[in-house]
Amino acid sequence: MIDDTELLRRYARERSENAFAELVQRKAGLVYSAALRQVDGDVLLAQDVSQSVFIDLARKAASLADRPVLTSWLYTSTRFAALKALRGKHRRQLHEQEALAMQEIEQDSLTAADWEKLRPVLDAAICDLTDHDRAAVLMRYFEGQPFAAMGERLGIGESSARMRTERALEKLRAALAPKGITSTAAALGLVLSTQAVASPPVGFAAAMTAAALTKSAALGSGTGALAKISQLISMNKVPSGFAAVATVGAGVASLETGAVGTNTAFVVFSICFGVGLFFTLLSAVAGHVFGGHGEVSHDFHADHGEHQGHAEAGGNANDMPGFAPLSPTTVATFVTAFGGIGMMLDQFEFTRSAWISAPIAALGALGIAALVFVLFRGLFRRTQASSEGRVADLVGQSAMVITPIAPDGVGEIAYVQSGTRYSAPARADDGAPHANGMRVKITRIVGTQFYVART
Asked: How far is Cα 418 from Cα 270, in angstroms, rounded to an integer?
């Protein structure tokens, strides 16, 4: 039989709904019974808690697929979901209903009395056990696994699994003693084996499977476009400026469809803020903010700001750097500011509506992006003025051919400026060939192309 982790792995990697359905079928009794106990027998609330657990399982399938024992995670998740559900039900009193599964199980008076005392405190005591002990108790008494199967799952021998389970059960019995549960470990194990897991309602597993898969798909649809955009950015498949604009588009699309959740506007703002901030930092680290490749070199292109095809840099007649209004930096700044302002506006009741917060956030983000554009444009203009001065100083300077210049072809020269040696592509002014090592003079510079003549 395929184990639980392999089923979850198949769902995470292949989106196999059959694998997920089989996993839910196996674990439905465990989750539902734990939920039913912790919500004091409220069947509808137990179903809601179980549904939230399986939805969470579907969403976190990729990160949970490597767990050797999935039962413990399901159990603790059920515990947290049940406590959260109870906090939202102030009108309900603790211990107001009996577990429905108890009605179909015939027990002697001593076992029934023990269960009545045990039921309200059992789950809290189990959650207080260590993860290893809790897994052993759940696998043995809640899932009914034999010691051989437990040992194989836990990576230990059959006898070691038996010893671990016995020690864990004794720890559980000791933890329950102060609460008035004075039965022996053997009696406790019997009660757990016969009473702990109740059969879920007919069709329960199928309903949980459908709800989890549907909800998981809806949550993924709101962020799938954004994930794809981020992937394309990292692979340099799309221009960076377009990717940043597409981020806002994807966010607006999910806002309109309402697929992300109940507080859709806040989620969209958060996504825009996170993706925009990430792209801004990535651009700065990679050197895109300054219109280069982020490399430090001593050639003419790096020193004089040759335009390399990035959207940041514009160009003039001398191919000096500029700064475009719709550069990735300004667009990413807009996206980041849009998300950040929107998140803040969402905290106030009177601006929580997306129809109010989105336009205000857009206007504020536009102002911040404009300020960034003005600041960087000034920086690029200073860089351009400095570069033009250096280019003018090079005309008439001596240089050496380091890569032969073919007739009417391009070679490479080396020259020294301010004590630093640089290299640059060069053509012969008269179209004649120039051999390696020949001394030449720079006669003119057109764009990024040097023209030289024999000295």
From this structure: 49
| CA angle in degrees (0–180, nearest 5) for 242-246-249 | 145
Q: What is the mean pLDDT of residues 274-283?
A: 77
**In this structure, is the dihedral angle defined by the CA atoms of residues 368, 371, 375 and 378, taken in order, positive or negative?**
positive
Residues 191-230 pLDDT 10s: 787 777 777 787 788 888 888 887 766 555 545 544 554 5
> Is there a single domain that holds both residue 356 and residue 421?
no
Amino acid at the residue 436: N
Q: How many domains does the chain have?
A: 3
Model confidence pLDDT, tens digit, residues 5-59: 888 888 888 888 888 898 899 889 999 999 999 988 888 889 999 999 999 999 8
Once rounded to an integer, what is the mean pLDDT over residues 234-250?
Answer: 48
335 with 272: CB under 8 angstroms?
yes
pLDDT score of 79 more than 70: yes
d(CA 26, CA 37): 19
Q: List the CATH number of the domain containing 412.
A: 2.40.50.140
Q: 387 and 410 in one domain?
A: no
Residues 6 or more apart from 239 whose CB is under 8 A from it?
A: 311, 328
3-class SS of residue 51: helix
SS (H, E, C) 280-336: HHHHHHHCHHHCCCCCCCCEHHHHHCCCCCCCCCCCCCCCCCCCCCCCHHHHHHHHH
Judge whether 452 and 440 are in contact, CB under 8 Å: yes
Q: What is the dihedral of CA 91, 95, 100, 103, to 10 degrees?
A: -140
Tokens of 320: 């000096």
- Provide the domain limits for residue 79: 4-205
Query: Which of 310, 262, 299, 315 is CA-nearest to residue 425?
Result: 299
- Alpha-carbon Rg of the chain, whole angstroms? 34
**Average model confidence (pLDDT) for the chain?**
74
Do 64 and 161 sit in the same domain of this protein?
A: yes
pTM of the predicted model as reported, rounded to 2 decimal places: 0.34
